[in-house]
Specification:
It contains six helices and no strands. It is mostly helical and about 130 residues long. GO terms for molecular function: electron transfer activity; heme binding; metal ion binding.
Length: about 130
């Protein structure tokens, strides 16, 4: 009986450590994200508040969708923000994977990133460089 309890306890400890390690591994590589961001630079910047073809991504994490000052968003993006869409890891991951599926009617012409690692790295880059 004691052996079973010990075995269960050790198993839980190992699974917890593996889970924490996996989460740390999912933090992304900001340097690799900088390379991915090169696909975005025709339309976006992270290092200034200036809009280009697309809105500035400075401070995008935590921003309500469709609200960056001075940018003319599509009605669909404004509506998404009014309905509560805030850019966080999950919402940005969905949007970056398929912008038109996440916000039907978005003006963003980019088809999306298909590689989850690229998205994870891009999110790390945005977190590090868009504050």
């Amino acid at each position: 009986m004691q052996y079973s309890v010990l075995l269960i306890g050790v198993s839980v400890a190992i699974l917890g450590a593996v889970g924490a390690s996996a989460q740390e591994g999912n933090a992304g590589d900001a340097a690799a994200g900088a390379t991915v961001f090169k696909k975005c630079t025709a339309c976006h910047v992270v290092d200034s508040d200036k809009n280009k073809i697309g809105p500035s991504l400075q401070g995008v994490i935590g921003r309500t969708a469709g609200t960056h000052p001075g940018f003319r968003y599509s009605p669909a993006m404004v509506k998404a923000g009014e309905e509560g869409l805030v850019w966080d890891d999950a919402s940005l991951r969905d949007y970056l994977h398929s912008p038109r599926a996440k916000v039907k009617g978005t003006k963003m012409a980019f088809a999306g990133l298909k590689d989850d690692t690229d998205i994870t790295n891009l999110l790390a880059y945005l977190k590090e460089n868009s504050q």
